[in-house]
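User: Need the bound-state model for adenosine-5'-triphosphate:
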Amino acid sequence: MQVLDAESNQNDSKSVLVVFTGPSGAGKSSIIQKLKENYPNRIGFSVSHTTRSPRPGEQNGVEYYFVPEEKFKDMIENNEFIEYANVHGRYYGTSFQAVETVLNRGQLCVLDVDVQGCRSIRQRSIKAIIIFISPPSLTELESRLRSRKTESEADVRKRIDDAEDEMKTCGEPNLYDLVVVNDFLDRAYNEARTFIAEYLNDKDQKFQLSL
Ligand SMILES: Nc1ncnc2c1ncn2[C@@H]1O[C@H](COP(=O)(O)OP(=O)(O)OP(=O)(O)O)[C@@H](O)[C@H]1O
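Assistant: Bound-state model below.
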């Protein structure tokens, strides 16, 4: 995985936006975590904007850029977001600027985005690799969510319901570059990693976010 190992040589430090998506509990964070562990200097994360209030200890520009709703809406109007969502009345978004900051460091910018966000990325013709992480089955997904013990019973049910719809998007043409079934974590991780490395090997030009 030479191209993923490249650290110091500027010419080898190719950058690309890598988007992971898929149902809650499918294993996106687990796979991203392994990429980060194995390629600590190659993987970067952009700082998102949000209208929610900072929690104790959170700093503006570190965990998030904390902005008033008016400012967030101005940014939407000005097309400054690659994707954004309103979750329980609070806005969250990934700005072009934040992603470019990571890409300009010669890093891969890794995002975890919902299916709607992926559609937005495709509609805007943003150059990105989009990888859908699929659970082996909904039964296995449910079992993993329960074992994680981070959700209430109602939240688990909601996630399983949403997962059924999200899984249907796997068959949509031109939405995802790769669908990885996360049966065994190491195998799924290797499949995603190999795909990214091959993409980087293919593209000689410096990565440009906009067409
Ligand atoms: N291949 C696997 N086999 C068994 N368990 C797994 C596998 N991959 C991940 N898990 C476990 O399943 C649970 C869900 O994984 P993870 O938190 O990575 O999902 P996620 O897609 O990031 O979810 P969310 O979108 O809710 O953050 C975790 O407890 C994780 O340790």
